[in-house]
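Researcher: Structure for this, please.
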Amino acid sequence: MQLPSHFILRWLKAGADHVQVLMMATMFVSFILQIVFRYFLNMPVAWTEELCVITWLWGILWGASFVMSNQDDIRFDVLISHVSRPVKRWMTVVASLAAIVILLLSLPASWNYVRFMKVESSAALGIRMDHFFSIYIAFVVATVVRQGWVLTQALGNKLYDDQAPAVENTL
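Model: Predicted structure, token format:
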């Protein structure tokens, strides 16, 4: 039995959303624990702050990679809304190409940095720093794929505001 692709996309999107919620809840609970330990029990602990930083970084990059839709991206609507559709289309092509090229050029150095950081560990939790920073590689790859899709759509005369997000409409 073959599952329809929209079902798989829906399942992956829901999973990514759940992971994002779990990270935000972990960050919130860790923050509250930090307040309780520091100000009520007068026993500051380092692991709560470290956990907040880790879940914040992972939450931001995870969300940008797997949770946000193209309509959620920040755009220069003040400028784009005042130009004709062909100009808007070519602005989208140039911006997408620029993002793809810059991110792909940065990927080897980013990969080397993440691999190099395996020699370091976080102070309180002992988490290897290459694991901590590995989400950036996923962010770069996901952003390149997303911008490649935006570029392909713009070259086909479809813009981000012409269509509703496919995955969200099927939920």
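Researcher: Any notable elements?
Model: Residues 167-171 have pLDDT under 50 and may be disordered. The helical segments are 5-40, 46-67, 77-80, 85-116, 129-155, 166-169.
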